Structures are given as structure tokens and as C-alpha cells.
Task: structure prediction
Amino acid sequence: MSDIDRAALDRAIERGLAAVWAHQLPGGAIDGTNRGGPLYAGIALAARAQIGALDAQDRGAVVDWIRTTQLPDGSYPASPRSTWGTLDSTAATYAGLKAAGVDDDDPARSRAWAYIQRHGGLAKVNPMYFPTLAVSGLLSPEELPSPYLFVQLVPFLQTVMGRHFNQWIGMSADLNPLITRGLLDAGHRASWLVHPLRRLEEERILDFIRDVQNPSGSLSGVLIYTAQLVSSFALMEVPEEDPHFVAAREALVSFRVPNEHGMEYMPCTAEIWNTAEAIRATMRAGGDPNEPKVAAAIEWLLARQTTVDAPESWQNPRPLAPRQGGWPFEATNVQNPDCDTTAAALHALAFVLRREELPRVREAMRRGIDWLLPMQNDDGGWPSMTRGVGSKPPGPFHKQPFWPPTTLPEMLKVAIHPPLELQDPATAAMTGRIIRAIADCGVDEAGQRQLREATAFLEAQQYMDGWWGRWEVNWIAGTAYGLMGVAGVDVDPRASWVQRAAAFIAARQNADGGFGEGTETYRDDHAKGPWPSRADLTGKALQGLVDARGVEDPAVQRAARYLLDTQREDGTWEMEDGEYVILPPDLFYTNPLSNLVDAVEGLVYLRERLDGEQDAPLTTDWSDDKLDRMRQLGDERADAVVKALFEAHSTEEVSRVFHALVKNDEPVPDDLPPAVRAFFDETEGLPSWANDALIERGEEAFGEHGMSMICGLFCSALPHAYCAAKGATVLLETGRMVSDFTRRIVETAQFVMDVMAPGGLRGEGRGLRTTQKVRLIHAAVRHMLLQRGWDREALGVPLNQEDLAGTLLTFSIVILDALDVMGIALRPEERRAYLHCWRCVGHTLGLRDDMIPKDLEDAYALYAAIRRRQFRPSPQGRELTGALLDAMAGYLPGTMFDGASAVYVRRFLGDDLADGLGVPPTNWTKLVFDAETFVARLFDHETERSAFLASLTGKFERRLMEGLSAAYRGGKQVDFRIPATLSARWGIAPRSG
Result:
């Protein structure tokens, strides 16, 4: 049972919700103030100075605040919590200071200018900031990219743009050239008489941006585009009294907000998002929708549902799909609903209806779902705002700052092959949020089918066991949202991919029970921190873990205690604000209320489950503290035998003994020293918990899919083992791994064959004896490496308990996951049985009982911890991988499969891990696989699709197995035995000679 104090939990939720509603504004909304970096102030000041609208607050309070953000090296950070500056942010902020009239010799300007010069000058600034630099006078118009506006004469241009690019690119393509044209023409529009086509281009752009401008005056509710809109109107001689120009100027000022050091400019606002979250958390906690403050918030949220058609070029809707009914992120952004915020609003309304049936709420939900469902991409996920524009592979993109094209050839190249950064691909974390919202709203069978497609997308997007966060920082939040989404649909929470995700989160828990993560993870997805715990991230992680593991899980209990212990009396947490994403890897903002709402909702989520079904606890400890200790432990029993052997005998005699162990096929050679024979006698049994029925079922699974499993061993399990930098070091140091790699890899395959062949783990089975021999050989390797001055402090003892556990998992769950990739769907009981066989092997191999995972979920949790701790690129891993690929090439005669091994390794590992191991880029064989996979998707029935995908690798597996059986080393055939029962079942001819 949970040891969470229920009374303390109730008090924490009550206090937290009271703190949330303390931020309610007079109109009913929850405050949506966001905080960005000083570059937004720089952009705003430059635009306002250009139109002569700077006031005392801009020149005083805003400049005063900018000064407080400057870093010691003279730079300015791009985001509120960044501890480093960027050239782009420094240049944009410097432009604002100049525009605000700060003296040239002012210390802040001088230090910033020196930083800019040290980093390449203004020419190295990202062109997306050129308009700001130009309107402030830092760049001359002639230094700007040529204003290619002629495309505006192309009929239906905006519609075409909306089918290939996200809406932000469309706005930039309109506004930036317009600003450049205006600067080149000294603030005049082209003459109808002298340049009629140029004037027509300018008029068409102005007409379009007026059409998409919000009534509030902003463009897309974002400061950057609103500032550019103001500059465009001024440079195109739009009259100052023009309503659109007036509204744009007022909108730009509306982004200004006070702070403790003066005033700043926000990048955007988040009233709708915060209000929806507050309503949902309150309703989940049992709140009354008729309570005045809650009712006011609900009415405010309903009034923000869009009632005008979103621009077709921004939404790219399906034919006949509604273009209104969604919700935007910013309250004033009525032209631009987005999928994520719409889902958040719908999710809040779904919980309102659980408390009381309200017709207005029901109708708003219907309209919202009717807008959101058709926005789903063909790949199953949901985009942010523009449907059907791009599809991403698993994992991150935006790992480098986007650099827009500036020349006509570059623009044409981008137009033909738009990079993902210019598109709007669906992302996993956002799709997870949308899945859960739609599922909780309830949809018909057609909607259920869409949710199944979205769930398949979510599974396909899993990367390094987790999910990348496009709009929230980052992997922990993204993975938690994925788990919440899965929990809303008909997916077994014990499915391997779900449990891998849960283990991914649990492995990142801090010692205090909380969770933290930094924006560094956008530049480097291997960044490991540690980062201080944050309440909002802990609340999200808590929700994901509760769904996947239940309330009794230790990680859930620790996270809950962290939130309860760190909450202050006023209901808040003394943590930094949650971080959200604008444009990774540099542009982020903070939402002060997210830290509060998400933490409270995590506790509400826990209480919901405490009041419902309670799952069995997962009690195994895979903490860093434990695994650090396990790295210093070898195998006490085997190590004692080997130590005695070396003390009693000469090196030559010891070598003879181990040579006999390796080469002799007899169960136990007759001429072994008594201590070694005693070791075999004392360790020959299986553990007391071994289950013969499970072992037999695991052997049957191997008999059915053994060739695929051996393929998975070569193309997935061994490369995964080489990803562990410390483990790869000892593998390489054993000597034979590269110098005699063919023999070593055949021995590894033989080990798997001996263990999993019928009867291998029972009676006098060859698998048991092989495992005992390997255990002693491991002890000998440990002894010899330690005698050679092995760096035990940095690497642990050779072949330590953590590394042995990792090896066990690569031979079990990694091979099971490889079958999933091949399209071979084992039944859950087959997966459990296969792991059970390897748990028995782990016991016989010398693993401590507390290092043997007790079930699949526990195995994935341990493997996630090992991956987090050890997976790093290393020279040893690359050398081992190169030797493996060379060996496989030798097993595959002829040229038909040239390059195929690298294709398969990349297929199983993903490009990120494969790059770390130095796997060569895939050749034409990948095209064959991609085409076959596409054809496989044509199958409607999952069984048919799985069977087809499984057949794709059949030829490769067979040739690999045949080549393995016929492998030669040094002109001699390498001994590799396939039991007669299996060779007959697999159709592999017995070896001759």
C-alpha cells in the first residue's frame, strides 16, 4: 500500500489550487504572462524607435532591465534562464539599446559591441534578425538579402506556400523583403507609374497581411512578427491613422510587462493555456463548475473559441473541414488556432462535463473536436498549426539554429526540398497530449480509428526509449505526455515500448525524488545534467509514471513525497519557472504559472489513482548509488576459484586449464584441478525460482524465431553492448575481440544457441555447462586485467555486476525489441518466457539475485538506467563495431548483401546511436527496405502486416545463418553447432566435413 499521507495530499492539493486561482484576472482568465530574453525587448525597441513611438518607459524601465541581463562577457542570453549568451541575441539587444538612444560609449553597449566583434561581427548574425539590425541603422539596406517579391505575382501563392511550409516561414517571406524594399526606397512605396509590377507586389503583400492580422493588431499573437508588421506598415507609407497600423502599434506595446528590475517585452502570452490547465486540474480535484471564479473562467474560455475562418494558407485544411472552432495559444490571436491549445481546452471542458452537463460546454466541445480531428496528418500525428506539411523521423530536429536562405539559389533549393525546420511535422509529445484529450472527451468509431493511428505514430516516434519535447523542455516532459496519451487508449500498459518509456523517466529521477532538465538537451540529446529538481517537471513525470506503473511504484512515491515536502504554506513551490520552447536550440521562454499548475495536477492525478485501482509495486532499486556499488563487484564465487588457481599453478598450467574449458565439448573435462571441478558441481543447478514450463516455452519461441533472434544478436544486441563506453573498454581489452574477431563472435552466437536450444537449460543441457565455463572465463579475465593495472576507480572491476546485467539484457530484451522492429510480434507470454530463460542464465552466470530483473518491466527499467549511465560514443565501441561489420560481411558471400549489415544495424539502433558507433551511412539497400516497408503498410490487418514485414528480413537472416555455420578463420572452418532439431526446423543443411 502507498505510504503517502492522504490528509497531507489533500491539504497540498487544496493549497495549490488556491494559489493557482489567486492569479485569476478580472475577466475570468488565469494570468498568461510569459518571460522571454532581452532580444525581444531589443526587437520591440528597434521597431518602436523607427516609428518615433519610444516613450519614457521604453527609454527608462525597459533599458534598465536589459542592463541587468547582460553577462560578464558582454553578451546577452537568448532565453531567461540561459547562463550563456549568443551572437544573435546580443546583436538584437544591442540594436534595441542603440534605437533607445543609449550612448555609443555606454559600458553596456561597449561590452556588447566588443562581444559581437569577437564573434565575427554583424555579418555572422542569423539573417532572421536582419530586419531589426536594419531598422535600427546597424546594417545598411544594401547589406540585406535581395528582396525577392516577384513570386507574389504567382496566382494562389499563399495556398501553395501553406502546403509546403509552416506559417511562420510564410510571414517571414512576406515581411522581411517588404522591410528591405522599404529601406532601399527610403521609406516609400513603389510608384504605380515607374514600377507598376513592384507596386502590385507590395500591395498584394499588404492586402494579405491585413487579412491575417488579428483585430487586436498583432500578427499571429507573436512579438517578433508584430514588430516586423509595424516596420512594414511604416516603410510602405501606410497612413498613421490607418486602423491596421494603429492596432499594430498598440499590439506591440501590449507585449510590455513590468518585472522586478523595470519592464520587459514578452514573446507571447499564454492565457488560454493556463486557464484550460487551471480548469482541468480543479475539475479533476472535485471542484464545482458553478463556483463563481471557476464559472467565470469557463465562460472566458468558451468565448475564446474561434468563430472566424483561419487563413487557409496557415491551416492547410482538408477539403470541407471546418476552419473555425479551435483555440489559439494567445487570447488575442483569433486568426490562428493551434492543435495543442485546442486539445488543452477540450480536455478542460471534458472534465467540466463530468461534473455537470452544460449545453454550451457540450456544443463547444463538439465544434472543437470537429476542428481538431481533421487536422491529423497522414502519418497519424498532429502538427502544431499547419496540417500535412512535413513528417519527421523519430527523435529531435532543430538541433542547430535555423539559418534562413538569403540568395535566390538557396531559396529555390529550399522551395524544392524544404527542411523540417521550415515545415510543421507532427511531434510525439504534442500528439500524446492530444490523444489523451480526445480520448477523455469521447469520440465515435471513426475518431477511435484516428486515435489508434495516432498511437501507432507515438510508438514509431519513440527514440532512445523516450519522446522529444517540441514545445516543452524536454525529454522527461515529452515522455510523460506520451505515457499519458497511451493511458487514454486501448494499449496494454505492460507493453515493452510503454515500459521502456516509463523506465526512461524513472532512470532520470534525482536523489531528492524530483525531476529536472535543462535546455542543453536540445543541442545535445545525450546531455545528462544533473539539473535541479523542478516542481512542474516532477508533476508531469509523476502523471506519466502513475499511468505506466501504478501508485505503488517507488519512483512515484518518491516524486509525490518531493512535491509534498517542498510545497510552501501558500501552496506554491520555491522553484524556477517551467521552460517552454519557441525555436530550439536557443529560443525559450518561461511560464511562471506552469510550475504551479503542473505540480498540483500531478498530485491530483496521484489521488485519482489512489481512489481507484492500485497496481502491484515495482520495488527493485536501479539507482545510481546501487549501480555504482555494483560496478565494484565481480563474482565472489568464481573469483575465489580463479585466484586459488593462479596461486597454486603456473601461468602455463592455468592457460592449459582454460584452453581445455574453451575447446573441450565435454560437459566437464576430466583433467581439471579439483577446485575447478568442485566449482562445476556446486554451481550446476538452476535457481529455486526457475520454472520448467516457462523455460520450455522460451525454447519454443527460439525454435520458432531463432534465425531472426540470431540476426537480432548480430545487428542489435552486440552493437547495443558496444554503445556502453565502459563495457566496450573491457570487451576490447580481452584481446581476442578484434584480433580474432570471427572466432569470438561465433563463440557468442554459439553461447546463445547452446542456452536456447531445446533442453539447453535442463538436466545435462549444453547451455548450463557453457554458462558455467563462461563464468569462469569472466573471472580469469577480471583477475588478469586487475593485475595489469586496470583503472578500477573510473571503470569499476572488469566484467562487473552492472556490465554483466547489461549483457544479460542485450541478449534478452534487446533481441525481443529487434523482433518488434522486424515485424515479428511475440505474444506477451512468449516474451516473459524468453526473458525467464535469460534470468536463469544470469543466475548461473554469477549475477547476484538483486541484479536479476524480476520481470519485463523491471528489465526495461534496469536497461534504461544502464543506457542513461553508460551510452556514450567511444573509440572502443567504434573499433568493435567496425570489426563486427567486417565479420558479418565475411559471413555473407557474394555482392548481393554488400552494405546490408550497416543498413540493418542502423535500422535497429537508429541513426543517433549508429553514428556514435561509426556505422557507415546506408547505401542503396536502405531504399529497398524503405520501399518494402511502404508496401507493408498497404496491408490492412495487423497479422498480415507483421507476417509481411517478418518476411522482408528472411533472406538476410538465412544467408547470415548459413554463412555463420560455414565461417572460416585462418583457413580453418570455425566450429559452430546448430542442433539437428533446429537445423531441420529452419531448413539449414547440416555442415559437411
Observations:
- The beta strands are 256-259, 262-265, 578-583, 587-591, 968-969, 972-973.
- The CA atoms of residues 613 and 645 lie 56 Å apart.
- DSSP finds 46 helices and six strands in the chain.
